[in-house]
Automatic annotation (TrEMBL):
Pfam families hit by this protein: Ig-like_KY (PF23265), LIM (PF00412)
A GO molecular function held by the record: metal ion binding
Regions annotated as coiled coil: 266-297
Protein name stated in the entry: Kyphoscoliosis peptidase
Domain (LIM zinc-binding) ranges: 70-134
Organism of derivation: Biomphalaria pfeifferi (Bloodfluke planorb)
Database matches in Gene3D superfamilies: 3.10.620.30, Cysteine Rich Protein (2.10.110.10)
Annotated InterPro entries: Ig-like_KY, Papain-like_cys_pep_sf, Transglut-like_Superfamily_Mod, Transglutaminase-like, Znf_LIM
Amino acid sequence: MSVKADSVVNNNNDRKISKQSLGSNDNLAPKVAIVETFGEDQSYRYSFTYEKATLYEFKYEKAAKPAAIDPCYRCNRRVLAQDQVDIGVLFHKQCFRCRICGLPLTIQTFYRNDANESDREIYCKTHVGKNVAQIKSGEVPPMGIEGPSTGPGKKYIFQVTGSKRPLPATPPKPQMNKGIGSSPGMDSLASISPRNMNDTSAWTTQTSPNMSMESTPAYENYRPHQYIQQQQVKPSPHPKSFLVSYEDFENADVFDAQLLLEERHREEEERLLRFLMEEREKELRRLDDAIELEKEKAADDLLSSIENLSITSSIPRSLLKEERLKVVTEKIATEEKTRNGKMIDRHCHEMMTLIGEKDRQMDRLCLFDHSMKPPPEPPEGKKSSLYKSPAVFEALDLRALDLANKDYNTMTDLVRDLTRTCKTELEKARVLFRWVIAKDVNKHSVNEIVRPHATDRLLKGVKSGKETYHQLYKKLCSYAGLHCEIVLGYSKGAGYKPGMRMDGQTFRNSWTVVNINGSWRLVNCTWAARHVTGHKDNLPQMYHKYDEFYFLTDPEDHIYQHYPDDPQWQLMEIPLPFSEFLNLPVVKSPFFNYGLRFYSNYGATLNTDTGMVEVRLLIPKILGFGSMLEPVHRQPSEPKQIEGRTLLRLVNNEAIFTIALPASGLYYFSIYVGDYWKSECLESACTFLIQCTNMKGRPSPPYPPVPFFGPTPVMENLGISAESNIDPLVVCNNDFIEINFVLSKDIRLTHTFQYFDVSDGSITDIDRYVFLRSRNDTGANYLIRCHKAGFYIFSLFAADITGEAQSLDCAFRYLVICQEPSPTVAMFPKTYQKWHRCTLHEPLTGDLRVDKKIIFRLDVPQAIEVFVVINEIWHHLKHKIGCAWEGQVSTGPIPGVAKVYARFQGATKDQSIFSQMLDYQIVDDAETEI
């Protein structure tokens, strides 16, 4: 099985270390995991993982000796001509990354350590001239951001493993020249941060930018963290707004001032609307005049051609009014949206300036200025640090939905009513968000559905197409004193499949960011409200559900779907290159809503040369899953979906999908998820492109048509656990395999055992090849035999013994693969109802040969007598210690049936009744030959 999901070398040991180092989502401190090992043969392995951007998991392995021809300077392996980057030394394209952090580099962005001519490695701007020892010790910011003690609340947890080698602690002095392939110009290390790089230093306290390393006499002994400790530089917290709650706005008379400003804004909107209508009419008149002139000219040309008996001209395409009208209309609409957007931006800024003036009127020493937009920076803390569940907003959500049924003439009155119970910026952002998406129902307000003639002045711009819901949300935020910006970029929305290109206007989109408590957060009102459930109880009012994922989305999750034109608005400490964004799997919001995570950093394209691919998901609980495998290039006569080529196993907290391709080619593989394991309605979670250019060997056979293998919630509900074979995929190459279940209480159990025939796809019950060897209140022991090669399905069903349910639910399902069956495989004896608390030690073979003396040993609790009946001859078994019964019985010369009976104490009113326990078949020697 081979999956090429990343361009760098990956190995299991490093992967486990990285996974452990990342920790839980609740720990907000960024973690840096570094693994550096040296082999006895001089081979070298290195990995660098940073939690805040787990997409950057840099790993590589350097061979002990370079290749004889064209070796890569990074990994020592040969570089082919089509895969090389030549900068004096050769690199693979996938190896052309920063030596320290693995940031992908280009010819324009890489740096060389000019201070050390023997160092031919390449670095990013942050790590040029640095070595691994400095990164490990925390002396150098690991990703070009604030150091361990300089950023506002930023700390790093370093986890270093691997063999150690003493490295020089003092970096060489870099030169000052900067250019392609040279060292960068030197600023103070202590002052480097996203804030001063973005020219927004007013928000933080920084060290002096004039103190460069070049002018420091003692640079050879310079240590950034020592300097910071000596100067006692402490991060400045974000300035707090003076006006936050509804009471603050009311007491400062903000709403009254907003009404006056809104009236002026409305007059300007009306003037712009009249102007745009006049411009539209002028453009359409000009189009009509141009078409009339062209018609007259075309008629004259046609008449001249008829007179000269040479009809060679044809009606020009310019006379097609519909096409030209469409082009002109689109041009006018674009200009109208642009002008309207600029006006909205100016109005929002004026509204924030008004609130800033009220701030200063209330407190002259207020440091926060509403008119000053905070710089785009990664948020401090994840979404989970703001709220754990949307249930905390239940009252606000109900208020927003209730007010969505009411008409408002002014934005001020609407925001006043929406925020009447709000105490924090988070609550304001939430209630405005829920109101906007409540209005986003087929581009109609709820009132217009109930009362078709009702009008809503606030949505006039949205309905006319001149204004988007993002702009509406931005206007609402400005009235509530929240900074909000509209971000433009590309999105992997409807219709996008992995491997598709993104250029021009294809897949262009927009979304918003809102500033809450000094941190920018990502919000997408349009995508949050795109799921409409329809009508309820035949009432005219329309209900819809919303997508919680698109409210304050974490940047690490948001980047899977959206890529902004300005990398700063990724809000990630390491901006992702556009090529890396395209190489991410197509991930939808249900993936995150159900708490799924990728086990490894998969790319959008999974490459294989064996036809086998594996995708692992980390799951918080047992969920319902589905999948679809479809060829990219499909003939019309071919089915859209390829059945029987995906195997799903649930192992501990993982969902493991194994795909066996039927042939070489390109395939789309999609995973669907639902909340319940029996869910019939599943939502799209993620999609990959699988590429198999040349399959080695024969394709693997199809899998049984079973939804999944592994445990169900019934296991946990009834207190059942698998003592052995936790992985539901079991390979049988012996006489039999043993499966044990641990029980916490007395429950009802049953099972099925089936054989899947690959040739015709049929499934056959073969109960005589599975045997409940032992069963009591604490456990159940099953024996399974495979009589021929192929796939076997073992299913355990269970139910509470005190429950009223007549049927038993599936608790666990195994897939048994038999490659080489044993030549001595035989069936087990047949069991009956009374056997469920007994244990059979021997004989375990269900077929007994004639004229043989067989020793029977079994445990039968509460039995008074136990007999083996052969051809109406009763053989009494002796009672041993406890509940053990034992005896030697002759099978006799005639084939037939051997039955085991037992009489129990107090089992029935008549204790003379014998209950049948087991059945054996007595056969001739010829019948048992294989």
